[in-house]
Amino acid sequence: MPCFYVPFLSDDTKPITISGDEFHHIAHVFRYQVGDEIQLTSGKGLLGTAKITSLDKRQLTAEILDICRKEKSSPRVAAAIPLLKNKHDALIVEKLTELGVSDFFPILTERSVRQASANTIDKLEKIAIAAIKQCDNAFLPQIHPAQTLVEFLENPAEFQPLVALESGKNIPLTLILKQMPPQPLCFIIGPEGGFSEKEVKYFKEKQIPTFTLGNHILRAETAAIATAAQIIGFFLEKNESYY
Length: 243
What we know:
alpha/beta, 13 strands, 2 domains, CATH 2.40.240.20, elongated, 5-stranded mixed sheet, Alpha/beta knot
């Protein structure tokens, strides 16, 4: 059953009114009618089931039938991703949101081919909203402002950075995870042309762990999805309820 994004959803069971884009999707795209049940997500930890009790041309009212509060598991996983041409960075946000990544840090590297525009973050946020609706995710990831790679590494928030490299002597990601204490992680993916020699040298100077995903050259979006899947799979082995 499709899920709809209602950021004002709360723990109480008072009837709610839905208008705007979500109303359009419910009433005109999926053509729900009075009496139908719909699934809701707040993006802040709540999933709910509601029954439509009234519907007009602009809005609908729904009775809350059930509310479930989810807790975001620890450690959190974030991704620092390059801005890519042909909307491939949007694909990364979509698929990593489905997997459960909590934060996205758009980065600009020396070989980046695309710069951030005034609406870049807004577009990525809309992609993330669509993704949580698709997979019934209770948490909307945070899309941080675009910054340079160096700016991010100077202040990676609470996350331990890890870098995916396609060259040099790097060890498999799973081995790095086994050697590290449980902590919030942010993996960094390079642009279409890879990281520059200067950037690779910077990683070494900062003693940032680097890892390999295998012996094939991967596209940035493939590397991002593969990395997120491996990290979250590793945490699932430790905690089968990891969310």
